[in-house]
Amino acid sequence: MIPGAAAVGVGGSACAEGSSPRTLVFTTLYPNPVQPRLGIFVRNRVVAVAERCPTQVVAPVLSRLPGRRFEHGFVRAIPLREEPDGLPVHHPRFTTLAGLGRCADGALLFGQTVAYVARLREDFPFDLIDAHYAFPDGAAAVRLGRRFKVPVCVTVRGGDLDLLTRFRFRRDAIRRTLQQADRVFAVSSHLAERAVHFGADPARVSVVENGVEPRTFVFTDQTQAREELGLSLDGPMLLCVANLIPEKGQHVLLEALTKLDGRASRPPNLVFIGGNPQSRQGYCERLIRRAAELKISDRVHFLGSKPQRELRPWYGAADLLVLPTFREGCPNVVREALACGTPVVASRVGGVPELVTGPELGMLVEAGDPGRLAEALQAALGRRWDRRAIAASGGGRSWQDVACVIHGEFVRVVGAGARAA
């Protein structure tokens, strides 16, 4: 834990009483009809918090990039306003610059949405802005906060501090954002430390982990799960749930699978669940080609994206969830798998060690090493796991628990601003 930062947990904070602040959520990471699984964990938290605070969402949509065209109808199919979950969600459009110009995304996002937010404020006089992702969302949000004289909370989620900070000008913008935010929420202690490293006041940083939907992700008997899915797999089953992008390391897992073949008594099947972001379409084809080159295509299955409600039986059917990722904030797929009783083999990066906290839950390996990953998979497949105990340990934090904490933080931030005024 970083000195001065607050670890806000379910047991450490009760739902605050009193008036609930009117909250404007500002984020480009929110589901829409064309991208229904975009930012699903942002949506889950927002919907839970909205049961406690009057809430509207401004989720700007990138309409075009210079020199590129989106798929026909991609943006036009997203309405300017919708009400999923009974929650008003607005999708104003914005554009950006290419190359080094991306460092101006925060200012551009503010400039192209401020008029829309001003009109919205006439009917919804929000007391607080809740931004998700430090850049460009948080950078724009702190400018909106100054414009409308309301406090701003920024949640950092992983790539914003682990990836974007590699670029000097975006790093500078993120530093200013973290310094100016009234509150910074981090989904792991790892990210809280990164936030302080990049300029956030430790006294304004809180660790608020994600949750899971307890009615969806519950202990699942492995035999029943396989029957429910109609699976007739001969041998163990490995499951990887993640977007198909190089940073998630699925190519490392393919290499590890071949090294495992000579050690395992029964060759395991490997199931990938996850989609291709538009910018990374070629990676899935690369994985398919590599599986064919390694002569394991018959045991590697690509199922594409699936709604969260359909993931539970896949977690339950798997012998292991495998996440060979190179970087993570706090991956909810690990939390979901554990809640279902599935042991985890994952890279020791980011907030993953904060979820796989002991050998009774799984095994951690260094990222990018197929040999070490194969050794860990062999050991994990050869072990008898207490899946009920794993579910009891991994399933204790719901989105309602998270919303209770966030609501209390919002009340305090708005109250502090009122007293300062």
Q: What is this structure, in a nutshell?
A:
The chain has helices spanning 40-50, 105-123, 134-148, 159-162, 168-180, 189-197, 222-229, 250-261, 281-293, 312-317, 332-339, 370-381, 387-394, 399-420, and strands at 6-7, 23-26, 55-58, 61-64, 81-82, 89-90, 93-95, 128-132, 152-156, 183-186, 205-207, 237-241, 269-273, 300-302, 320-323, 344-347, 362-365. It is of the alpha/beta class and 421 residues long.
Description:
With 421 residues, the chain is of the alpha/beta class. It has two domains: 6-211 and 399-415, Glycogen Phosphorylase B (Rossmann fold, 3-Layer(aba) Sandwich), CATH 3.40.50; 222-394, 3-Layer(aba) Sandwich (Rossmann fold), CATH 3.40.50. Helices cover 38% and strands 15% of the residues. β5 and β6 (89-90) form a beta hairpin. Residues 8-17 have low confidence and may be disordered.
CATH fold naming of the largest domain:
Rossmann fold
Which CATH architecture of the largest domain?
Answer: 3-Layer(aba) Sandwich
Helix content: 25-40%
| Tally of strands | 17
Give the CATH H-level superfamily of the largest domain: Glycogen Phosphorylase B
Contiguous runs where pLDDT drops below 50 for at least 5 residues: 8-17
Strand order of the largest sheet: 1-11-10-9-8-2-3-6-5
What Rg do the Cα atoms give?
A: 22 Å
End-to-end Cα distance, whole Å, is 32 Å
- What characteristic shape results from the CA principal axes? globular
